[in-house]
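Hi R.,

As promised on Friday, here is the backbone we talked about, encoded as structure tokens. Could you run it through your design pipeline when you get a chance and send me back a sequence?
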């Protein structure tokens, strides 16, 4: 079983510098280091699976983020309508990964039970911990569960033949990466296990973390998950745009089965 996998960039933080991207010291001496926002589409074997759902224009304005387009509407560039998506993997419930869930009427949602427990548990009384979450997204996930549309995971598991999730707590306690079998090999969508390639290369996590040791362990794991190094895809790195071939009709959608290295 093999799949097509695409990364869709829908927004960015253009003025960000490297000082904001590393816990434990900045190896780049505060160089320009934008942060990009992506969702990922997996298609094949009769399945249409979306990994994460991004955020909307209202959230972008409130959090001072640049949004280029609605990530769900951008699926049309790949010939996919919102109603075609049968499964959504929410890697974690942070605002930039779990918005727009209401725009996917026919999807089932895959979430780690640990993430729901974290997002609704006692630690959310701390403003620092709850800052990356949006209450509305968490409440919507509760509503989806009441509607019997959530498939709960407790650790690693296969969600479709050749598509697996991997529970790697650190950045958030229910964070999960996704691996996909393709003709190019096994791709690892790391999501926020590693925001940037350099978080892994320097052993320095992204500053938002629920468990530093778990985040460093996650770096080690996602390095092992793809079948070759160039098929590791971090969650927010602009280098994704220069590491994979863009599709002909859209310079911000990238075919992850076609690495340029």
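Update: got your reply. Pasting your designed sequence below so it's all in one thread:
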């Amino acid at each position: 079983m093999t799949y097509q996998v695409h990364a869709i960039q829908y927004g960015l933080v253009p003025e960000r510098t490297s000082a904001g991207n590393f816990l434990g010291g900045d190896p780049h001496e505060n160089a320009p280091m934008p942060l990009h926002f992506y969702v990922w589409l997996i298609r094949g074997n009769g399945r249409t699976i979306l990994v994460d759902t991004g955020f909307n224009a209202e959230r972008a304005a409130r959090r001072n983020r640049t949004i280029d387009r609605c990530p769900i509407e951008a699926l049309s560039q790949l010939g996919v309508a919102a109603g075609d998506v049968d499964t959504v993997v929410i890697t974690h419930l942070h605002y930039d990964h779990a918005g727009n869930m209401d725009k996917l009427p026919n999807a089932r949602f895959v979430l780690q039970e640990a993430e729901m427990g974290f997002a609704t548990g006692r630690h959310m009384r701390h403003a620092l911990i709850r800052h990356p979450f949006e209450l509305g997204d968490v409440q919507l996930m509760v509503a989806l569960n009441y509607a019997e549309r959530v498939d709960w995971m407790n650790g690693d598991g296969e969600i479709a033949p050749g598509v697996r999730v991997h529970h790697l707590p650190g950045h958030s306690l229910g964070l999960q990466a996704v691996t996909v079998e393709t003709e190019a090999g096994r791709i690892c969508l790391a999501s926020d296990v590693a925001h940037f390639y350099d978080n892994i290369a320097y052993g320095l996590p992204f500053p938002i973390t629920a468990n530093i040791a778990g985040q460093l362990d996650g770096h080690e794991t996602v390095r092992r998950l793809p079948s070759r190094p160039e098929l590791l895809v971090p969650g927010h790195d602009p280098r994704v745009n220069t590491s994979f071939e863009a599709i002909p009709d859209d310079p911000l959608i990238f075919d992850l089965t076609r690495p340029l290295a």
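One thing I noticed while checking it: The helical segments are 57-62, 113-120, 127-130, 135-146, 197-201, 212-224, 240-243.

Thanks again,
M.
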